[in-house]
Amino acid sequence: MKWRLASGVLCDKKIPPRLKGKFYKVVVRPALLYGAECWPVKNTHVQKMHVAEMRMLRWMCGHTRSDEIRNEVIREKVGMASVVDKLREARLRVVI
What we know:
- The protein is mainly alpha-helical.
- The chain is 65% helix and 0% strand.
- The chain has one domain (2-92).
- The protein has helices at residues 2-10, 17-32, 43-61, 71-78, 83-92.
- It is globular, with a radius of gyration of 14 Å.
């Protein structure tokens, strides 16, 4: 639902991709990873989150899968690390 609320900003062609990436990191990604520290994460969960994030990033950049642009190129354009890496970081962060 956060994506739908923010799509007006994230899909605007006048806003540069790096700024969209920063907005995505602050608003959408925390909602996507909420509670990830305590999930029993399976490979299917990781794959679904990766697919969902790439769909959002492609939509932000104005590309589709038929454009055949590699995921790494889109991530570099927006300036973003993989959601899988962030999920791993969140799970490894331990509060003592």
